[in-house]
Specification:
Chain lengths: ~425, ~240
């Protein structure tokens, strides 16, 4: 009876002061949403980031830092400083441990999107997320030299359809590059969205990369040496070099041995990395930042809780009469104290509930933006235990901090007698 | 073994014996050698401002305890009980009306009146668990317009608020009603009507009233009169 009465009183009193308290609820809701959002995005971005590539056991390229190799081969960020000779590629793929190998030749672009020269093996072997494969719809992989398969975002952004002709540019900068306008490519396939950098790239055959650079020397076309598309088709299009290669290993236990062998390759300095390990390393670089961000939002929540207590303490001065009345009716001082604690906890719970809605709403709105801006595909998922823990901690902290006004009310209600003396 | 003294207090609602009281950090002290109110007897307490009228009511309500001597409520040695027991006794047996601002601001009148029933099982049982009906009946009897029962209490006039407070004090017929200048904010008409209704209801519930007032005109309705100043011991 007493507990029910206390809760009923607390509810009625909160409702009575809803005007003032809605601001308290608003600040608390915003800060808890922020906390939840940061924690949620942090894990989601990590998940999405770490699953940019899967199913590939090794990435091999010319000697460079593992991070650089990962960035240019998977994220299409930055450039390779050196290439790998085709003969070396041929040699290393002879290793018995190699199950499959997909070469990649980078260095050209189309309207800011990277162009990747590769083999159709790429569409078979490249995996992302939980072993998801690339699918092309509509269309098919490239077969002719001047066929191109484009990523989902490339198609969406420029509204490309199957059969459209596009021109590739030399270089990966955003301005002043030479266009390969003498050899237009035909869109023969559009990849389904993956939420990875694949969406932002175009895929052509290795031969195509050779063909568009026929008659070039040191990265510029030699005047008077232009070849037509038809002439190019007839020429020997065996690649001279590639930028990197994705490798599948027959037995996973052989991965490290293969990596060691290639890292010590005698003919040409190579670097081989395990993409999973490299991704985790890269994530660790960001880890300090996002932990700091979470801590900051934690402080924001704490500040809002202190603000709530300040408001409760202020209103307490106006509520001495009310407390004296309750005492006179027979309310024990414990009930008076509980009233303040229950009110704090209820405010916190309402805010947490609102924050839950606000965060999910906010995430739903933000996800397309994040995908468009960062190429990270996030998904709405149920909250994790950690996130529920964070949410649960808010009313708990509210309870703890409410002990300040509660104990004050308790002591006052004992000394006030019949008439509180303001 | 009962002494004659015990027998005497048993029939009384309220007895004070040789009580000494002083607030902490306050030089004024009170000494009440002997005071007794029997069931149905009503006491009228007057005295200058600061003479300790509210102080005595706080003692009678068990909100504070005397340094020595004893206060007996319904045969129970009230002032030596634990705080928890005094809260319980107050909830069960005492109704209190203040001078003003009697009501819990966020509850409508009808809920304010029912409140004592939520704190005391005894008073709930006395109205046969029909708190709502009892509250309705009291509000009706005390002439609080039904249209105001559910409005915020701030919408009520001071006189109406005092009558709601009286209804709340009377709910479940507590043996003792303490009223601390409940009419001082009312005009003469309202004051007389209020007192009339309060005494009527107290008579029906067989409750004893201790009524504090500055206004000697009200005194004639009471069987006992006490000047607070006679008990006050102002330091020299
Ligand atoms: N809760 C309290 N704590 C300490 N001192 C108190 C307390 N309540 C009253 N006093 C002191 O006791 C003395 C008597 O005050 P009290 O309120 O009982 O007078 P009163 O007769 O009711 O006066 P009034 O007619 O103005 O209501 C005053 O000096 C007051 O300061
Ligand atoms: Mg007084």
């Amino acid at each position: 009876m007493m507990v029910r009465t206390t809760i009923r009183l607390a509810l009625a009193s909160l409702w009575h002061r809803r005007g003032t308290l809605s601001l308290v609820v608003l600040t608390l809701t915003l800060s808890v949403s922020l906390l939840l959002g940061v924690q949620y995005l942090r894990t989601e971005v990590k998940q999405s980031f770490v699953s940019t590539i899967s199913g590939t056991d090794l990435i091999v390229g010319a000697r460079s830092s593992p991070l650089n190799l990962l960035l240019y081969s998977v994220f299409h960020v930055g450039n390779a400083t050196n290439n790998v000779r085709w003969s070396t590629y041929q040699a290393i793929r002879q290793n018995d441990a190699v199950d499959w190998m997909v070469p990649m030749s980078l260095g050209d672009s189309h309207k800011g999107h990277r162009v990747v020269g590769t083999t159709t093996g790429f569409f078979e072997h490249f995996e992302y997320g939980q072993a998801q494969q690339l699918t092309i719809s509509p269309g098919r992989p490239f077969s002719d030299v001047f066929d191109v398969v484009i990523g989902a975002d490339v198609a969406r952004e420029h509204d490309y359809q199957l059969g459209d002709e596009i021109i590739l540019s030399h270089g990966t900068g955003s301005t002043s590059f030479v266009e390969h306008d003498d050899k237009p490519f035909t869109v023969v396939g559009v990849l389904d969205p993956t939420g990875t950098p694949v969406d932002n790239a175009l895929y052509v055959s290795l031969e195509a990369i050779e063909a568009i650079h026929l008659g070039w020397q040191a990265g510029v076309p030699v005047p008077g040496q232009t070849t037509s598309a038809e002439q190019a088709r007839q020429a020997d299009l065996t690649p001279g070099e590639i930028t990197a290669a994705l490798v599948g290993v027959k037995r996973k236990v052989l991965t490290f041995r293969l990596q060691r062998t290639w890292n010590q390759w005698h003919d040409e300095p190579l670097t081989a990395i395990l993409p999973g390990v490299a991704l985790s390393r890269l994530w660790q670089l960001l880890d300090g930042f996002e932990t700091a961000l979470l801590a900051i939002t934690g402080f924001v929540v704490a500040t809002s809780l202190v603000g709530m207590t300040a408001v409760l303490l202020t209103t307490q001065a106006h509520r001495r009469r009310e407390m004296a009345v309750l005492r006179a009716i027979g309310a024990p001082p414990g009930l008076i104290a509980a009233l303040f604690s229950i009110e704090s906890v209820l405010i916190a719970m309402v805010s947490v509930a609102l924050a839950l809605g606000a965060s999910y709403g906010g995430l739903t709105l933000m996800m397309p933006l994040i995908e468009a801006q960062l190429g990270l595909r996030l998904s709405l998922r149920p909250l994790s235990a950690v996130e529920w823990g964070l949410l649960g901690a808010v009313p708990l902290c509210a309870l703890l901090i409410s002990l300040v006004p509660a104990l004050r009310a308790y002591r006052r209600s004992l000394i006030d007698g019949l008439m509180p003396r303001e | 073994m009962t002494t004659p003294d015990d027998a005497r207090t048993a029939s009384a609602v309220l007895t004070i014996n040789n009580m000494h009281f002083q607030w902490p950090r306050n030089a004024t002290a009170w000494h009440i050698p002997d005071l007794q109110l029997r069931a149905g007897e009503h006491g009228f307490l007057h005295g200058a401002s600061g003479s300790g009228k509210s102080t005595l009511l706080a003692l009678l309500a068990g909100l504070t305890v005397p340094q020595s001597g004893k206060i007996t409520l319904l045969g129970q040695h009230f002032s030596s009980r634990s705080r928890r027991q005094r809260d319980r006794l107050r909830a069960d047996h005492i109704g209190i009306i203040f001078q003003q601002f009697n009501l819990v601001p966020y509850l409508p009148a009808i809920d304010n009146v029912q409140l004592p029933g939520h704190f005391s099982r005894r008073r709930r049982e006395r109205v046969h668990d029909a708190l709502y009906d009892a509250a309705r009946h009291l509000l009706q009897t005390l002439a609080v317009p039904e249209s105001l029962w559910r409005s915020p209490v701030t919408a009520l006039s001071v006189g109406q608020q005092q009558r709601v407070a009286a209804a709340r004090a009377l709910l479940g017929a507590p043996e003792l009603i303490l009223a601390d200048e409940p009419t001082s904010a009312l005009d003469t008409d309202n004051r007389d009507r209020f007192l009339e209704l309060l005494m009527d209801q107290a008579r029906q519930a067989n409750s004893t009233i201790v009524f504090v007032s500055h206004d000697p005109a009200l005194g004639r309705r009471f069987s006992q009169h006490h000047d607070m100043q006679q008990w006050q011991e102002v330091p020299a």
